[in-house]
Write a sequence for this structure.
């Protein structure tokens, strides 16, 4: 194995309102709130070589010189820390919520009319704001795909 990983350091967090991170799913696209954008600097590279199995694995960090390459990325909150949303699998882009609704359709819970998506794997609607959706669960699907009685 010979792999180089870029290390990006967040130097500024810019809170935003009204933006969502968009992810592609097997059922279409979903959105979750984007809390901020991160200004990051590429400060180092880590070169990974060898194999763990035969104890030849090594990691060498090489700091970079200034001026650093910078980027701005959408953030997610992951276990209390803000991380780049692009690190999450199937991330598409960040956009204003209104643009998401225009592009992919406004999705609402059929019971309470809150913005929601139908997650087939869970077999229920999930509120986009993270609020409890227990009262809104729809009947489970049958194998034919229609709601059971």
């Amino acid at each position: 194995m010979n792999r180089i990983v870029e290390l990006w350091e967040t130097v500024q967090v810019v809170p935003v309102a009204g933006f969502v991170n968009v992810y592609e799913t097997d059922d279409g696209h979903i959105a979750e709130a984007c809390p901020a954008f991160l200004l990051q600097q590429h400060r180092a590279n880590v070169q990974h070589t060898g194999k763990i199995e035969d104890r030849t694995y090594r990691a060498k960090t090489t700091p970079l010189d200034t001026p650093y390459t910078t980027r701005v990325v959408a953030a997610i909150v992951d276990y209390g820390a803000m991380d780049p949303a692009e690190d999450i699998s199937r991330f598409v882009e960040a956009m204003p919520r209104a643009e998401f609704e225009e592009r992919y359709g406004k999705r609402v819970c059929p019971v309470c009319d809150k913005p929601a998506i139908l997650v087939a794997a869970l077999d229920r609607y999930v509120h986009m704001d993270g609020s409890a959706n227990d009262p809104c669960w729809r009947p489970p699907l049958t194998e034919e795909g229609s709601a059971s009685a």
Remarks:
- The chain has a mean pLDDT of 83.
